[in-house]
């Protein structure tokens, strides 16, 4: 990312009109706008024009608006006052620190910007991805502590591995900091060499060079058309369906999908990794009468025979649906003993089959889910029959 150079501007004004014309320098600070290594020392001098009629001993200095102690001053001549700053701290902002010379009334005579910082360290964590093979975006992190405290420019450079000229990335408008997108003249089936150069007025550094083929780093848009619906009256299941990313419909690849879901009042997502390449899935073992949020993402694996794992897309927008309410929760009974016996029997039956379900029916296996559906319908019918018998005994 090309850092924008900030300018430290100090407007010099003569507060006593008529002494000198506005085009005449009333005072000068030397050195002007120095770039200094953090921890270094600086001696600056404020030279006042003799026609101003001001003695150097009446002047004073400020740094970022704070007056500096006179113990740091030295009168070098009737028109020259110096100040010595030891062990300079890093600049508060990349636009520099304001060192200003004032007359005895506090009026500004001259100013200088101090740029105090560090040379850049080698950029790290350089990674790249291609959205639907239409571009190549790379991001990185500054090396070391990251902050140089002065304006630092980062340039992404690249070239084809076996031929071609070195080029610079031009599109630094990506929303992610320290990133750049290459949008023109992309070559498939040809490796690229890519690196980042960091530079400022105190030094420069270069990242490690990475080599990649665009087909190995393809990502895509999130799956579209995500729908979540109930599975009949099965109280602990939801059906999820989606469409494959349309941007890759003409490419030879096999997609992988992941699903994640969470309760409405929770921020903890549960991820299903074994969805495979199908575009539908059944979520089981859910809470009855509960709202769930569901998201899907895609990994385009093996585009044109690439052997790399691919890069996951962003998650789709959350889609919400609720499971049916449990009949066991909605139907009440005042006979605590009968209700307890019924629940105890149901729990035993649930325990017997859930052991098998958890082992074999997790995920999106259509065969195991059909068996699971049959068992759930059978149990619900059995529970209804029990309720009818219990209500008949009471009457």
UniProtKB/TrEMBL annotation:
The residue ranges flagged as biased composition, category Low complexity, are 331-343
Listed PROSITE patterns: FN3
The subcellular localization recorded is: Membrane; Secreted
Q: Which residues form the signal peptide?
A: 1-21
Q: Where is this region: Disordered?
A: 322-343
Annotated membrane topology: Single-pass type I membrane protein
Q: Does the keyword Amino-acid biosynthesis apply?
A: no
Q: Where is the Fibronectin type-III domain?
A: 122-217, 222-323
Q: Which Pfam families match?
A: EpoR_lig-bind, fn3, Lep_receptor_Ig
Give GO terms for biological process.
negative regulation of neuron apoptotic process
Molecular function via GO: cytokine receptor activity
Q: Sorted alphabetically, which keywords does the UniProt record give?
A: Disulfide bond, Glycoprotein, Immunoglobulin domain, Membrane, Phosphoprotein, Receptor, Repeat, Secreted, Signal, Transmembrane, Transmembrane helix
Q: What cellular component GO annotations does this protein have?
A: CRLF-CLCF1 complex; external side of plasma membrane
Report the sequence similarity comment from the record: Belongs to the type I cytokine receptor family. Type 3 subfamily.
- Name the UniProt record assigns to this protein: Cytokine receptor-like factor 1
Species this protein is from: Seriola lalandi dorsalis
